[in-house]
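re: ur question from earlier - yeah i can do the single chain one, its not a big deal. heres the input i used so u can compare w yours
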Amino acid sequence: MRERYPDARCELVYNNPRELLVATILSAQTTDVAVNKATPALFARFPTAQAFADASPEDIEPYVRTLGFFRNKAVSIQSAMRDVVERFGGEVPRTMDELLTLRGAARKTANVVLGNAFGVNVGFVVDTHIERLSKRFGLAPEDATVAMVERRLMALIPRDAWTDLSHMLIWHGRRVCKARNGLCAEDAICKAYCSNARAAASPARASTKSAAAKKPAKKKAAKKRTKRKTPATRRKAP
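and the output i got, formated as tokens:
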């Protein structure tokens, strides 16, 4: 992974921990590309945590209207920034427990902020791409929850690699090992580890077996069609 993606990084555009926190809240069920289109105007209008705190959710909505669930996200951002101002002196908190008290900041968001803004590996980021790859690569069971996937990755991977590897897995998931129409069958990494690549290679073998299994049935059917009943001999009247 490191050789394939030496420049892997967080693809959200930000200049400080506050902007990263806001961008990550906005990124829920939304692409980073869409978030990056919305945030320049948003951050220009609300350049500080205090500016967000003084605004109403309705003031924020026009700047995030292009994103999914924009009304809920506007409420979350305003509430989170108000807490940052009132409880943390205007600075984004640096601990998992404190970040989780902010509205809109679940564990994934907290891990993104801690790992990228502060260089602290407290947990492993698990987004939709990492969850998918973890299961396809056999790092977690198919029925594992997000929390279970994170615990598995934390147990298997050295702590100092958590943030960097999360970026590599996300890049691979976005570019190659996609949820649909992926390139797994042609990719060396996927061929070595991904169940999706193995599944893509199996239909040819399965169709050959299926064709072979059908041949005897066809012969039987042909025999059945050609077999004629011998007409019963009619008795002559005495």
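The domain at 9-122 is CATH 1.10.340.30 (Endonuclease III; domain 1). not sure if urs matches, ping me
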